[in-house]
Design a protein that fits this description.
heterodimer, A: 30% helix, globular, disordered N terminus, B: alpha+beta
Chain lengths: 200, 191
């Protein structure tokens, strides 16, 4: 247990150092695929407030707390816009299996639907640059998980699901965690770090 | 999503993803809470029902994340799907029971859950003060759990028990009514 009580920004984990060292230039992209480099995680509550922010790699440039708050709020807005501008197709007049009663959330009332009827627009899911990929996962309750990873990494979904499970366990099930408030759960930090370290 | 598919999902998660605890620990803990509430509120059973519902509501708001994280299911297309999801996945993974969904109203906005088995109520006999049998809904916490968890996924419902074997009824039945879908949080196709 004592190892886990190290400072949260765990630095110098041997397997992380290799990435930018000279010999790494020879490593094939295939090898990199197996390494899941997670740079950082941001959690935004359903109102667009920042409730969690953390880096997992040493040497990342940090923003000020205020900038993170602005980033969270801005992303929240952009995400909402991307949902609004999702194109919709006129509904084919095929018999729908269920009669839509008033209040049913299937978007049948308007006569237009997304390409896959019944599945609401998700909004922004990926944002990619040369240096990093931002993956956004919005839960059905409206919480958003933003994961910054190396653009070469695959299977971000696995990581995302695990993070959501850890969040459900160590944040939501902590009786003293107040909903929608900033996450200050030491056990969450610990398990998150331990799990990500175990993967790389 | 069909009832059968929901059952399979519930069964699968229950077998592989859920940590089990001794059922009697749960039963005794819950029984103690209800008994303590009855004492604290001087057998004002209306108030006890209310408190249980409130406790359940707070549990539901948290539990829903665990449900979603474990099950990985998407949004239900209609209230009938929601009912199956509650009965066959929700109750299955958290209490290992799968109540029957029945008694739909014609507008598909109200249904009943019939519990053949209720782990919360094992060993329980209601106090024979002449009122508990008529006023106390022993398992009322479940109503709150449903209300809280569904509210978090933008479904506002009302839930209450209409019968309980503890009161001498033939069945234990909970009535669940859709109030509305909460639009604020919905994706914008609702306008």
């Amino acid at each position: 247990m004592s190892i886990l009580n190290l400072p949260l920004e765990f630095t110098g984990a041997p397997h992380n150092c290799g990435r930018h060292s000279p010999q790494n230039t020879f490593s094939s992209s295939h090898a990199q695929l197996s390494i899941m480099t997670v740079f950082s995680l941001i959690i935004i509550n359903k109102a667009g407030g920042l409730i969690y922010q953390r880096e997992f790699q040493p040497g990342l440039r940090k923003l000020s707390t205020n900038d993170y708050l602005v980033l969270a709020g801005t992303f929240h807005g952009v995400h909402a816009i991307t949902r609004t501008i999702t194109p919709r197709l006129p509904l084919q007049n095929t018999a729908s299996p269920v009669v839509a009663s008033p209040g049913t959330n299937a978007p049948t009332t308007s006569g237009y639907s997304y390409p896959n009827p019944g599945v609401p627009a998700s909004g922004l899911e990926y944002l990619e640059t040369e240096k990093f990929r931002l993956t956004c996962f919005q839960t059905l309750t409206g919480t958003k998980f933003l994961l910054f990873t190396d653009p070469m990494t695959g299977s971000v979904e696995t990581v995302m699901n695990k993070i959501y499970e850890l969040y459900a366990d160590y944040v939501m099930k902590n009786p003293f965690y107040q909903l929608e408030m900033p996450v200050r759960c030491e056990a969450f930090d610990r398990h998150l770090a331990a799990w990500l370290r175990g993967r790389t | 999503m069909s009832t059968n598919k929901a059952s399979r999902i519930g069964e699968e998660i229950w077998k592989t993803r859920v940590d089990k605890v001794n059922a009697e620990l749960v039963t005794l803990t819950y029984g103690t809470i209800v008994a303590q509430l009855c004492q604290d509120y001087n057998s004002d059973y209306q108030e006890v029902n209310k408190q249980l519902d409130k406790m359940g509501y707070n549990i539901g708001m948290r539990l829903i994340e665990d449900f979603l994280a474990k099950s990985g299911v998407g949004r239900c297309a209609n209230f009938r799907e929601t009912a199956d999801m509650i009965a066959k996945v929700g109750f299955k993974i958290f209490l290992n029971v799968a109540p029957t969904v029945t008694n739909w109203t014609s507008d598909n906005n109200q249904f009943s859950l019939i519990f053949d088995d209720n782990p919360l109520a094992d060993f329980v006999e209601l106090p024979d003060d002449g009122r508990a049998q008529d006023e106390l809904w022993f398992s009322n916490i479940l109503c709150g759990v449903l209300r809280g968890s569904l509210e978090m996924v933008q479904v506002q419902i009302e839930a209450h028990f209409v019968s309980d074997v503890l009161r001498g009824d033939d069945t234990t039945e909970m009535r669940v009514s859709l109030v509305r879908y909460i639009e604020d949080e919905m994706p914008p196709e609702e306008e």
